[in-house]
Predict the 3D structure of the following.
Amino acid sequence: MYILGVSALYHDSAAALINDGVIVAAAQEERFTRLKNDLQIPVNAIKYVLTEAKISADDLDAVVYYDDPLLTLDRFIKNVMAIGGDAKTIIERYLDSMTSRKMWIHKHLEQAIGGVGKYGRLLTVEHHYSHAASAFYPSPFEEAVIITIDGVGEWDTTTIGLGKKQNIKLKKAIQYPHSLGLLYSAFTVFCGFKANSGEYKFMGLAPYGKPVYYDLVREKLISIKDDGSYRLNMEYFDYHRNEVMTNKKFAKLFGGDARVFESRITKREMDLAASVQKVLEEVILLIAQDAKKEYGQNTDALVLAGGVALNCVANGKLYDSGIYKNIWIQPAAGDAGGALGCALYAYYNQFGGHREIIKPDGQKGSYLGPGYKNNEVENFLRENQYPYRLLTGEKFYDAIAQSLDEGKVIGLFQGRMEYGPRALGARSIICDPRSPETQARLNMKIKFRESFRPFAPSVLEERVSDYFEMDGISPYMLLVEKVREERRFPFNIEDLLKEYDDDMLPIVNRKRSDIPAVTHVDYSARIQTVSKEISPVYYNIIKAYEKRTGCGVIVNTSFNVRGEPIVCTPEEAYTCFMRTEMDILVLENCVLQKYDQPWYEEKENWRKEYELD
């Protein structure tokens, strides 16, 4: 039974295909259109997943959409009625999209796919059930508590439930306009970053600040009960009225207007980030604790999805709390993952599929996107007369390890592309973690983004506890833990901020541990553990680097620049390589040196668009 799942028309649209409950392929539309967080009908992603399975639309047993348009329309109408005369802006912004697109999703998908499968009908799954299914069914647990938290889906913003064998039941919900995800996004936007993409930056900014606004946020903006349920004080927010997240009353509460995008980051933004991060963690821990008490008497497992599940700092606190012995987080936890979740939910709940538990999980490392064979890569390079060396076996791994040891920055393009926002060694930029200048160099010269943003370590799975205060695994880079104390160097962020007048660059370059490029200013790191079974090529690269240097960790960041999606094709990888100051490009077994390549005329003009002030 082939089932196609689709997410679209909100943000980060995607398509996923399953065959008898097993994931065949999944990808975000942005990777094909090159439009960050593309929300359009995922025509290209649908074409890809069908091609990967070697089937046509006529072979599909079902097509499933990850949201119920009627319930979303219900929320829209009731929201308009509630705000009355102030509804003009929200009607102008959303009515056309609601009535001409979302309500006719079946027609749009039929046109995009060329039919909606054998039986000519489209199924829908409620948004948070799609999230819940994406978390539970690929997990290695027969039974687990399920928590989903995001901005909003139809009415729900937070749900708590239980998964057992094939069955999922969501038992509690918090509904719009009260939303932990929208609270976090409101602060993200107020501090000068973009909603639905800047939350990662905002999370990375938090360790520079102190939660000095925590009490004010708790007193004025959010009421939290002992079970983690919460309500927002809507007097300070405008997202239910128009496209603006917060209002003048919110700005007055925090000492003035919002930070202008791309302007200097001040201590206020750092402290706001620290404060709202603390609130987020507090609510999540309370929800998890109450869910364990209410529904988790027979299980020590928890699964998470929804955009807030990408907050790896909060995930790390939850992991350390010991409330649950085992935690599994959907790597495509945001709306993209809804495409997979709705397909899985339909298979098990509407078609009676039998669930088999897969270890370590059923996500296949999240390497579910397009891949390219060596001969395809070589044809591309030869046709364009791009010089390269073809290396195999130990010579391949030794050459990469040597380049890393020499401080070279490498674009790594291997196997099938990742599904979800994290690069996991298939479409990654990698380099030596031992240099204190690496973080700033990567941010300013290669990624063209803010210098304060931290980079993640990829570490050999069996060595994780030698470097970090962690004994388990984190294959999807969704847990933050501290660098081991004996590896740290003295570092006081408050004193340094005073010394450098909040200038982050010299602070970023200050050595904080013996792996400084992956050590944030609070000694934390967003960890990816790499196993030989799931990621053999990537594992062997790190292993060869360890053999050469004694260090079992490398820097891993996504293969893209600010404002662009992760690269998908060899051509996109080569373009990104030439436009930036990467030293080496590895396309499967083909190794390209920057100094061997022909002059790239686009480079200088293109860089001006992305260079930071």
Summary: The first helix runs from residue 30 to 33.
